[in-house]
Every structure is written in structure tokens, then in C-alpha cells.
Amino acid sequence: MGGWCLCEKAPSFHYVKNLCYFCIRKTPYTGIIPLYSVIMNHNTPKAAICCVGHITLDKIITPRHTAYMPGGTAFYFGYAMARLHAKDFLLVTALAPSEKRSVEELRRAGVKVKVLPSLNSVYFENSYGENSNNRSQRVLAKADPFSIEGLRDVEAEIFHLGTLLADDFPMEVLKYLASKGKVSIDAQGYLREVRGEKVFAVDWSEKAEALKYVDIIKANEHEMEVLTGSSDPHEAALKLADMGVKEVVLTLGDHGSLIYADGVFHKIPAYPPKDVVDATGCGDTYMAGYLYKRSQGCDIYESGCFAAAMCTIKLASSGPFSGTIEDVEAVIKQ
Questions:
Q1: 310, 101 in Cβ contact below 8 A?
Q2: Strand, coil or helix: what is 188?
Q3: Which pLDDT tens digit goes with each residue over 266-296?
């Protein structure tokens, strides 16, 4: 019996039976190098924000071009935090051995990354029409779900779960992370059911139980309606709060966003972009900005405006957020 090894000296994931000649380590009991023995036995300091999610392979189709690139919440959130120079940020991801390059590039950008093993990476095909708010998807491969064991040594004030598919985070993992810190989730993945390669919108069967453990939820106008049965953002926010969520963040495309917390609605403006090139990752960029400012003690309105301005910058180019804090502040002031 052997295992996958990922060490800093190795050029890629590599399979070993007894001894890894790159890192010169072996487990004390069997002499085998499981991946966990190499990448999990570190004393990980407590992070202000920890994003947990899969890095994906994405095929992005727009009316203007087709591009192939890494993606997923982990990818977009991680790069956004790097551009904000967030020092107390940790990214936890799981991906196939062939995709180690995505992790290396994030690390070079200054992101602390903890990698968990997965036989496959998630492979998405995202297709957009002229209206960037409308997207169709196919899933061509799925990654392994996250587990308590894989997250046992991770400590954070806020855990942001970048759910891509409904089975990414089993209920016991959600409860476990809630016992360690605040939990923030993106609703999108919980509302995706894969049939064959196609993705269908479904309700979240475990939402009544799960949302008791969620401090912050982000949903767009379509997701909020699936979750609550209401197309009115104010009514939907109240229903989600009644389920136990403390901060409800509803992104409404070019109509801005609405945040509800402590009995107060906060209307966040949408800042018009110079151009709309690629909307992929906008929701993840929004939450990176929002949680970044909230972790610094900023109020909800300021945090929401900062997040919205980051999205405006992100929309104008393909790939992850590439602006600066000064760019974001300039958008807000315009």
C-alpha cells in the first residue's frame, strides 16, 4: 500500500510505496507516505479568514471568446485576498495531482495554501450570453468532498465554505467548523444537482438543519428564490434570518446588493463597470471583499460597498480580481 506525496521539493504530486526521496520522510508506523502525513502535520496558526473549497478546471464560454483556466471559489477568493494583502488568510483546497501548478501559482502570489488529496478536480463548463447575469453549466468531473479529518488542524475566526456542488461539505463538516469559528457559506453549490453532465437548480434538502450553524450566507436573486420561495429580496432575507442566519447577503446583479443583519436592511449600490468582460468569480470576489472588511471591524454598509466595488473592477477583465485597495476606493468615490 502506498500513497500520494506533495512536498515543496517535489515537481508534482508523486506516488510512493515506502519513502519519498524528495522530502525524506516516512510515517512511523508503516513506512508509507500517505498525502496527509506530508501536508497536514504542521502547526497551522489561527487565521482571520479561512476559505475552504475546490480549485476547478473551468471552460468559460462568452459571446466574445472561449477560455480555459482554473476556477472555483478557492481560486477567485484566494487571488482577491492576495491583492488585498490579507496576511491572516488561509486557503484550504483539494484537487487532482495534475493540478498542483494552480497551487504553486497561488503560493507565489502570497497565499498560504493547504492542499488535501483528491482523485479528480472539479471540471466546470460555464456558458454566458449577452446578459452576464445568466449562466448555464455542465460538470465534466467531480472532486472528493471535504472531511473533518482533513480540516482537524485548521483554525480560523471565519470559515468561508466555497461550495460548488451539494456534496462538497457533508453536514458533519459544517457542524464541526461551526464549533471552531464563524461559518460563512455561498449558497450556490448547495442548490446544484448534477445529472449526467448537466447542472440543475434544486432546493437544499438539509437547509433547515444546516442554516442553524451558518453565520453569514451569500445568495443571488435566483438562489434566494430557490431557498425561500420568495422573489422579493426583503422577504427572502427575513426568511433566511428566521432559519438562523445572522447576516444575509443577497447580490442582485446591476441592482446592487441587500444585506440584512440585526433587524436592519442595508442597501448596497452597484457601481457601473467600464466594460463587462467576464462575470465568472464575481460572487466569490464580493465575499472576499466583504469578509475582509468585516474581519477588520468595518460595519456592514462599508464592507458591502467595498465588496461591490471589487466586483465592478473584476467584471472588466477575465480571470481573478487584479485591482488594488486604492482602485477599489477610487470606484467607491466616483
A1: no
A2: helix
A3: 999 999 998 888 888 999 999 999 999 999 9
How far is it, in rounded angstroms, from Cα 240 to Cα 1? 47
Give 321's DSSP letter: -
Q: Distance (Å, rounded) from C-alpha 32 to C-alpha 16?
A: 7
81's grid cell = 485576498
With beta carbons less than 8 A apart as the criterion, state whether 97 and 13 touch. yes
| C-alpha span between 6 and 4 (Å, rounded) | 7
The domain ranges of the chain are 1-41, 42-333
Distance of CA 21 to the CA centre of its chain: 34
pTM of the model: 0.83
What is the dihedral sign for C-alpha 150, 4, 58, 325?
A: positive
Residue 71 has a pLDDT of 87
Tell me how far apart the alpha carbons of residues 259 and 217 are, in angstroms, rounded to a whole number. 10
**Tens-digit pLDDT profile for residues 14-35:** 444 444 434 443 333 333 334 4
Task: Please give the helix or strand (H or E) that residue 308 lies within, else none.
Answer: helix 300-315
Element (H, E) at 182: strand 182-186
Closest CA to 212 of 248, 166, 170, 246: 246
CATH code: domain 42-333 is: 3.40.1190.20
Closest by CA position to 76, among listed 100, 96, 58, 97: 58
* E strands in 34-174: 47-53, 56-61, 66-71, 89-95, 112-117, 122-128, 135-141, 156-162
- The low-confidence residues of the chain, meaning pLDDT below 70, are 1-44, 132-133
